[in-house]
Design a protein that fits this description.
alpha/beta; five-stranded parallel sheet; three-stranded antiparallel sheet; 52% helix
Amino acid sequence: MFNVTIDGVAGCGKSTIAEYLSKRLNLKKFNTGSLYRAITCEFLHRFGRETKPTKKLMDEFVKDLDVEVEFVGEQQKVYVNHHDYNNVLREEIVSLTTPLVSGYEKLREKVREIQRKFASQNDCIMEGRDIGRVVLPNASCKLFLTASPEVRAERRYEQIKEAGEKTSFDEVLRDIKLRDKEDREREHGAMIPADDAIIVDNSGETLEETLERCERIIKEKQIK
């Protein structure tokens, strides 16, 4: 199978870029972030916003976790314990809680099983956290996307405003810098590029420019 991995820092456009590239290159797109966000929704549903995850709590939580992934055409749907959270995955509370939930190893083991099974059966683009280093270390092509915190904060700020939610640019920038720190320092799933990953900094690029650059890289790997 020809597998492409897309890792990168929060807010650098991994999901959007993977979506467009999958269509241009006729590769199935597997959105790992949606799995973790849907699982986070189930965590919030069960324990509420005020509960902080701990190892003991997460170990028990994962034991009863039933995750189903299905594709409706090109659309990936995730169901957790038969609950459909697909319409709320991008809510701000989910974005803020997902990094806290997704760092626990028992949960990551469960998600990796789903990811590897899919990659073994499909030519695909898989984006998310730790894909190139841990999940698919033998992938055909590995990309690591990044951008400056300020650029990512501006992009996220515009998304939040368009959704009708209230915030400020400074608050968004502070959250992104905090998440970057947590992502770098977490025990499991630290946001570090694989040794053989190609770094793509899109701070000064339009979406189309980033897509064209990534497409060239992937096609060169396919030829080889």
